[in-house]
Amino acid sequence: MRVSRAQAEENRRAVVSAAGKLFREQGFDGVGLSALMKSAGLTHGGFYKQFASKDALIAEACGQMIAESVEKWQHLCACNGDDPLAALVNEYLSPDHRDRPGEGCALAALGPDVARHGAETARCFESGICAQLAAIDGAIATSPPRNTARSAIAVFSTMVGALLLARTVEDQTLSQHILNEATRSLLEPGER
């Protein structure tokens, strides 16, 4: 059965969206094409009409995930003009973000997988990291001064590292402590 161009585009968006969620939850290699297509509400046979390969889908899904994160960060900063850095840090290092990897930061969920999936995916992540660093730079510049937040790279590294660690441990008290300490180190004034 032939589908319209509009329906084909809608199907493609559904696959990319489903892939983003599943990849963040299970990793690139943890998701098979059948499960992916089923999650998108489509049959396995339609995959190769939409994508040249799974790697092509990975690159496109990563681009979409990162674009959504950057847009979310820009919106969060714009809506929290008094202290955009606190808004970013508190949102990122929240239990809600920790507990929903399928909807969260692609870098924290997939960073280790990126090195194993080709230059195109790595370039996509690099571009996203640069955009997120720019958002953090802007947030630092317009937030109250803090001795602990000196560079966007240090802030982002702390955020991603803390989220990774908080997701890794089973002890929920320790997990929350990791998030709290990272937040405190980034937002509370103090001496270095």
What can you tell me about this protein's structure?
- The protein has 192 residues and is mainly α.
- It contains 10 helices and no strands.
- Helix 4 runs parallel beside helix 8.
Question: Compute the gyration radius: what is it?
Answer: 18 Å
Largest sheet: none
Give the % helix: over 70%
Summed up, the helix count is: 10
Unreliable stretches = none
Order of helices and strands: HHHHHHHHHH
Task: Label the overall shape.
Answer: elongated
Total number of strands: 0
Structural class: mainly alpha
Strand content: under 5%
Average pLDDT taken over every residue: 90
User: End-to-end span in angstroms?
Assistant: 65 Å
SSE blueprint and pairings:
Elements: H1 5-26, H2 33-39, H3 47-50, H4 54-79, H5 84-92, H6 95-99, H7 106-114, H8 118-142, H9 152-168, H10 172-187
Helix pairs in contact: 1-4, 4-5, 4-8, 5-8, 8-9, 9-10
Keywords, separated by commas or semicolons:
192 residues; mainly alpha
Question: Can you describe this structure in just a few lines?
Answer:
The chain is mainly α. Helix content is 73%, strand content 0%.
